[in-house]
Amino acid sequence: xxxxxxxxxxxxxxxxxxxxxxxxxxxxxxxxxxxxxxxxxxxxxxxxxxxxxxxxxxxxxxxxxxxxxxxxxxxxxxxxxxxxxxxxxxxxxxxxxxxxxxxxxxxxxxxxxxxxxxxxxxxxxxxxxxxxxxxxxxxxxxxxxxxxxxxxxxxxxxxxxxxxxxxxx
Length: 169
Prior knowledge:
Layout: H1 3-24, H2 33-43, H3 48-94, H4 98-101, H5 104-110, H6 113-137, H7 144-168
């Protein structure tokens, strides 16, 4: 069972090598026009960049734009409406002297310990999200060929790990 992945990998490499030879050499041994086309094909990452742009980048960007519109039009509107309603309710329930008592200094004295803990929790979550965002931006260069290289390294490492595990069984 451990030999099958190794044989499959070897067969894949052999087929790739044979394909390159067939595409780059004529029966007489000289480089053909098809080889130049194959060279251009391989130089273009076998069309992977265009495929990723068409199948991943464009759909993800379209989804991001749609979610941004939803956020701006629905979520923000809901938050603003809730804030207006809460302000109106507070004014209605507070009576005539509420504004004077609830000035900048008065509000601080009214805060409960629950509100203080909740504010601390919100600040901690915001700091953690900021740190995670910084970490997530590090490998994002915008250069698709580096993403392909990272994926290749990861897949190679996973393949080696799978082969080692298969051989150890």
